[in-house]
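FAQ: What does a ligand-bound record look like?

Like this one, built around pyridoxal-5'-phosphate:
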Amino acid sequence: MPVDQIILGSGSSELIDLVMRAFADTGDEVVVPQGIFRMFAVAAGRAGASFIEVPVNEDLTPDLDAMRRRISDGTKLVAIANPNNPTGAFVRRDDLTRFVGSLPESVLFVLDEAYFEYASGIVDGYPNGLELLAQGRTVLVTRTFSKISGLAGLRIGYGFGPADVVAAMNKVREPFNTNLVAQAAALAALGDDAHRTRSRDLVVKEREFLFSELSSREGLRVHPSIGNFLLVDMPAGKEPLDTGFGRRGVIIRPMAGWGFPGSFRVSVGTHAENVKFLEVLDQLLAGARGQGLSGA
Ligand SMILES: Cc1ncc(COP(=O)(O)O)c(C=O)c1O
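The answer part, i.e. the structure of the complex:
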């Protein structure tokens, strides 16, 4: 990949921010699927753009036809997180290729692949954004060392795009955005295939375990995920459970603030951590039922 088609960021979050600032001005439209990773809303808000969230399908995958219909002359940027956080849902290769091919030339498509490594070569039909780029599409693909390489605290992500898109982002970028320590760690991570493979294999095995365990619990709905987390819809009366986890040493993320009231996201951990999470969940569900808080 030519170097003028690559950009580094202080996490891929910074790249989302930069691409919004470079391409979306006050009043311009940014079209996304409802429930997309929240950084997109934050960045669009900072750029003064109008953030259009298009309702998703019942299985929480983006409704690509509805998104296409919503694109207008005022749309500057369209984005999809593949898979999305927190839903874990993804768009398949054929659908994505068709969708991107249908976009007007004036629209920049941003494809967030923060969880790429947990799906590529594992999940049937999971696309690779770099193929779109190779086809000459106006697309910015973002990835990160925060997930598979565990470097979230060091803040380093990267993006690939056409040279003119990268150049426009570089114009609004702070000159010293990534630091030496993060870059050294990223280089070390690139050389550490064994760690990446171990991390990926653990997540793939354990997300299946968690999915099947959660699916068997009455009153819960767990959404299929190709990331390293799962979105779980709670039975009614969820509130005591949110705080109950923390008191028992398990941190989950309630998702009300992300547009999913009644749901939480759980990260896939080691087997022992996942078993502990399930034990606490069972205690809390039993307690909730005892207080008449079940979904019934
Ligand atoms: C879908 C998605 N994209 C991007 C990011 C940003 O990650 P980072 O800024 O650490 O690279 C996250 C982090 O949670 C994410 O879930």
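Follow-up question: can I read anything off the structure? Yes, for example: Residues 11-13, 37, 81, 85, 112, 114, 144, 146, 152, 157 surround pyridoxal-5'-phosphate (CB under 6 Å).
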